[in-house]
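Hi all, long-time lurker, first post. I run a small reading group and we've been trying to get comfortable going from sequence to structure in the token notation. Rather than ask abstract questions, I figured I'd post a concrete chain and ask someone more experienced to write out its structure so we can walk through it together at our next meeting. Sequence below, copied exactly:
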Amino acid sequence: MSAREHARTQPRETQQGESRRPHMTRDGAFVGASVRRREDPRLLTGAGRFVDDIDLVGQLHAQFVRSRVAFGRIREVDLEATRAVPGVVAAFAADDLVMAPITALLDRPIEQFRPTEMPVLAHDTVRFIGEPVAIVLARTPHAAEDGVEAARVEYETWEAIVSADAARSEGARRLHDAVPDNVLVDVSLFDTPGVDDVSLFDTPGVDDAFGRAAQVVEVSIDTGRQNALPMETRAALAQWDERESQLVLHTPTQVPHLVRTATAASLGLPERQVRVVVPDMGGGFGIKCVVGREEMAVAAAARRVGKPVKWIEDRKDALTASFLAREQHYRARAAFAEDGEFLALDVDVVCDMGAYSCYPFTAGIEPLMASGEMPGVYMLGAYRVHAQAVATNKAPTAPYRGVSRPQYVMLLEQIMDRAGRALGMDPLDVRRRNLITEFPYTSINNITYDPGSYRESLDLCERMVREEGWYERQEEARAQGRHLGIGYSCFSERTGYGSAAFAARKMLVVPGFDISEIRMDLDGTLTVTSGTMSHGQSHETTMAQIVADVLRVDVERVQLHQGDTDRITYGFGTFASRSAVIGGSAVQLASRALGDDLIAIAAHLMETNTDNLELHDGAVHRRDLPDERLTYEEIADIAYLQAHRLPKGVKPGLHASASFDVTNDGTFSNATQAAVVELDSTSGAVRILRYFCVEDCGVAINPQIVEGQARGGIAQGIAGALYEEVTYDANGEPSCASFMDYCVPTAMETPDIRIAHLETPCIYNETGAKGAGEGGTIGAPAAILGAVNDALRPTGVLLDRTPITPRAVHAALSGGDR
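-- Answer (accepted) --
Happy to help. Here is the structure in token form:
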């Protein structure tokens, strides 16, 4: 089956730990096979190379003096005692290092977006506890910490603003002078007529739909603030290379070229003088796809002292002062006809974005995602939304796996459940009544969906739940006085955002395309580059599979290079499940171009037409005389060492490049997930008995890796649904200084997950892949909240906030105060 055909395979299913296919498919292809991860041997044997594994001669160690107040004016930064600490070499405050602030912009009117500057080091005002005020350089990490402790900073302290409501209240102090009401982004789909933007339009008939509705459902949802918590914290190792007149910055970023651009601009250097290198990276999940101020301060300090400077973020700072996410509030009304038709949706969204806009996505990342993509997998008659991003005295928000979709999917799925109960219908039938089934489909939000399997995934997921007898077990449990619930979530994940999609958000930095280059050496081995950046997704394996299939070589002959701005022409890195969709397509096109060159040279040497040749087993074969062939090594020998034998117009060497961008609205992977939970009436604990996932990410380049993404994503979704939250006291002090306070689920809290696969290839790219990075996280909170509320149904109580705490469950079961 062609990857570009709209076709749907039969569902396939695996149990945890199983591989669905051997290392090659039955037809000898690598794409679609669970090829063993090439990264694993070095990572499992301790041969991985992370930033903290790199030590340079004469390097200094950096740590930051951080604000101990949430909001106030800096009166004085005294570093004299710091500089006197044994082992401390230097200490710099904002006035000591000349760096331009980080400014992220949207091309929107001031009524919709208010830009703010984020200084690399705070110089007059501090806006959250943990904000960097000064950098200390020392010969050892311990001396750097001692130097931080010796610093003296005097503040004029102001009352902390620790909620979006407080920030927007009358008389609230401004966090930024240019933001009078502390609202950074304000977009409405009903008050900006005539604006040409997918997230700014009015749809007719909203009020009329509510007037004629058989049932109006009102739902409010709140979600707690979370930390993405990559295994490897943020880090930087910067060195000024005198020979190259270049600043070399090693950092675990998802977006190396954007870090280069921002660092060069902040330090006033030409981009040629900044090289960003990313070694192995232990997770990112979105917080590393924005530019951090600490990395830039380390770079500036290294240039200033002329020595390498290394900074490794400790876990306390990672928990409290790194980029956070997820704190959102939704208030919605939904109108339904008597037969369950979804007539209209009216939503108010408030996102607490912390103290600053992140670069390059800005504070608009969450409200624009929520407002622009809210209808999800459902057909909707009319739509109105008002979304705001609000500044508070908390660490700033960055994208985190899913970006607002876990929240609005949870809202929509609660709407479907409650509408079903109110209408006397099975909530799954309400979903079926409204799921998109004919493609391509242009939604009320003016986004066109490519073919998917929305109805099929729901039907299969329900069948899996019923086959295991969970509905019968639920009835038995209720008869025994136990509280067992079943919850579902149907959703899509928009992936592979191209330049057009980001431009529609009015971003001035417009991510989208990717560039790949490929080279064949004399021995026939292949080196390919990608502008994407792996931080656990196994790009070295999947990209090699793509190349191997196009050029018909063994996957072991392919080597991927990524994460080096001097070796990679340009790229926007990895986020939003774009790597296989866009980066993989660029790799495939570059591989095809090299294959065309191999055939062109072989046709000349073999004195035949190109149509008579094909690639197979590392050689170019004649179709009419299958025994006649030229190996890639033989062709490379001509291309490099005997260039005079090349056909006219063909340049020496074997190399090609290609770029790829998605020119439509992107592509949509989809899934249905279901959770079975039991509530403990004594403790209020929620135990997940079973979890189901039916996913469709288009062509699964490596099914086992896709399943790993799904399982890991579901675990993070469970974390947000039940465990993880960063809270603040009235003074803006964060509650989570260690893992004693920030509850992270382990394997003990992660249930057995049953996964089945549907495959609807993407018709808008080269690989047929749709992306699988975020789907697990998107669906889990909705499924779990739905299951908990289903278990609580006999009590008449509905919970509307995550994480779902034992206290809230216990109160619901006992009729007490939540």
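A couple of things your group might point at:
The radius of gyration is 28 Å.
The mean pLDDT is 93.
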